Amino acid sequence: MAELLYERIAATIEQQIEQGLYHPGDRLPGLRRLRRQFGVSLATVVAACELLEQREILEARPRSGFYVREGARPLPSPGEGVSDVDGPSLVSGQERVLGLVQAHNDPSVISFGAAAPPVELVPAVALDRSFARVRRRQRARIPTYDFPPGNLELRTQIARRMVQAGCNVSPDETVLTVGCQEALTLSLRAVADPGDVIAIESPTYYGILQAIESQGMRALEIPTDPVEGVLPGAVERALARWPIRCCVFMPSFGNPLGHVASEARKEELVALLRDHGVPLIEDDIYGELPFDGVRRWAAKAYDQYGDVLYCSSFSKTLGAGLRVGWVAPGRYRERVAYLKYATSQATPTMMTLAVADYLEQGGYDRFLRSARRRYERQVQRLSAAVRQCFPEGTRVTRPRGGFVVWVELPQGYDSLELAKRAIAGGISVAPGPIFSPTGRYRRCLRLSAARPWDDEVHGAIQRLGEMAHGLRMTP
Ligand SMILES: Cc1ncc(COP(=O)(O)O)c(C=O)c1O
Q1: Cα separation of the two ends of the chain
Q2: Which of 208, 201, 246 is CA-nearest to residue 228?
Q3: I need a labelling partner for 131 at 20 to 30 A (CA). Which of 320, 347, 398, 403 fits?
Q4: Where are the beta strands (DSSP E) in 169-297?
Q5: 4 falls in which pLDDT band (50, 70, 90)?
Q6: Ligand 1: which atom is nearest the Cα of residue 183?
Q7: 95-120+366-469 against 124-364: fold identical
Q8: 371, 438 in Cβ contact below 8 A?
Q9: Which residues sit with their C-beta closer than 6 Å to ligand 1?
Q10: CA of 337 to the centre of ligand 1 (A)
Q11: Ligand 1 centroid from CA 466, angstroms
Q12: What is the CATH number of domain 95-120+366-469?
């Protein structure tokens, strides 16, 4: 418990530094003051400050206290090499992702590649009970189609949960899908045609690139800040220059950067896109996993005209194998429901009823509270191990939620080669180029911290670090 507390206090201080409460060179308030401020013991604040010292954010000066380090560890650079004049492009290089995620099927591989919660981090027992109840009580429904928009029980539960994200959406305004991936693809098809330009974050989740590629659309990369996501100014410049048909963004806990836009930024973005008549596809799949427990409002919360197609799923919380997701498509509802029907007829009845039953039982929020804390700790441990084991100058993001970490190696290192060597050694990672339609981010990689931390995981990061040291790219 004490361990949890000091880690949380360290995270709060780190956030205060990022928000500019303290600048490099500033002295932090004295330990006794911090202790009173946080209402904890002296030992706990000391442990928090020492942790930040280990992470090279603070430095202790003898008889003086803790100071914010000059040039405190920089974050990865936003949108490597992306400039305002880079136009849209067709997506290439995504075929290799299947090989990468297939490694996840092999239990002997230590997987930092695909980002999915393991059985230890889903409410497996409660879900089992829900499956049993559905089998007992809803037997007649299980073998039947549950045509779009899908069963009302789950859509009602989803609409209630979306209130926490500031969204006033009725059950009738949602459509159930096979995971968030189907929600994204249907949304794209509803608002755009082959050849159209889709603005995306850079780097972005490779599934978004695959959805764009599968529809023959073109992607336009918008450089994305590792703390705040896409900045409205960059979107505005792109809108002025290119014929953007829609945007696909992750305003809260984006993948792979873990960024989160402020509520004001989200509101500004929605208004800007409204002015240009451009719909927003919002991917909020990590929205329920904020480390500080504060559910952020979605961009959809600021949507008065039905321009935002909100996509999510239970893959990151209840399990990716359930394949249960949804979209709240705003004014594109009829079109999305029809495309859903035309694409896959329905979402598996058993799965959606079981998730609805689980949510009706009322333990989801409690489960999420403990899952968030565990992910936060796992992310911190993984990040600390990377900093320790990877070549000097390696940069690591500081995600505020979710469970993925973006790592930027120094110039000259090649993550594709690292991924190749890693898989030969039984470790999978997601190399940077798959997060860009044009193969940028050659020296970056994404690591999933979903797996509970243990000696095996630590050993795998150490081995990855050794491999990274051994692979300076020849110019
Ligand atoms: C940001 C993001 N969107 C969508 C998906 C796809 O989700 P699902 O498994 O629910 O289809 C993922 C899965 O990794 C993701 O990280």
Answers
A1: 49
A2: 201
A3: 403
A4: 175-178, 197-202, 218-225, 229-230, 244-249, 280-283
A5: low
A6: 11
A7: no
A8: no
A9: 115, 179-181, 205, 207, 250, 255, 283, 285, 313, 315, 320, 325
A10: 20
A11: 30
A12: 3.90.1150.10
> Inter-axis angle of helices 31-38 and 42-54, to 10 degrees?
110
Pairing of strands 218-225, 324-328: unpaired
Q: How far is the CA of 226 from the centre of ligand 1 (A)?
A: 19
- Which of 98, 101, 181 to mutate for ligand 1's pocket (most ligand atoms within 8 Å of CB)? 181
Question: Do the beta carbons of residue 443 and residue 395 sit within 8 Å?
Answer: no
Atom of ligand 1 nearest to the CA of 250: 1
The CATH code that applies to domain 2-68 is 1.10.10.10
Distance CA 221, CA 471 (A): 28
Ligand 1 centre from 116 Cα, in Å? 9
pLDDT band at 78 (very low <50, low <70, confident <90, very high): confident
Given this model, what pLDDT does residue 7 score? 80
463 by Cβ neighbours in 10 Å (0-12 / 13-18 / 19+) ranks as middle
What burial class does residue 331 get, using C-beta atoms within 10 Å of its C-beta: 0-12 exposed, 13-18 middle, 19+ buried? middle
Could you tell me the pLDDT band of residue 475, with boundaries at 50, 70 and 90?
very low
C-beta atoms surrounding 132 within 10 Å: 12
Distance CA 311, CA 208 (A): 12
| Burial class of residue 451, CB neighbours in 10 A (0-12, 13-18, 19+) | buried
Residue 70: how many other CB atoms lie within 10 Å? 9
| CATH entry, 124-364, from 3.40.50.360, 3.40.50.1460, 3.40.640.10, 1.20.1740.10 | 3.40.640.10
The tens digit of pLDDT for each residue in 390-399 reads 998 899 998 9
Secondary structure of residue 217 in the 3-state scheme: coil
Q: How far is the CA of 186 from the centre of ligand 1 (A)?
A: 14
Q: Write down the domain spans for the chain.
A: 2-68, 95-120+366-469, 124-364
CB atoms within 10 A of CB 239: 19
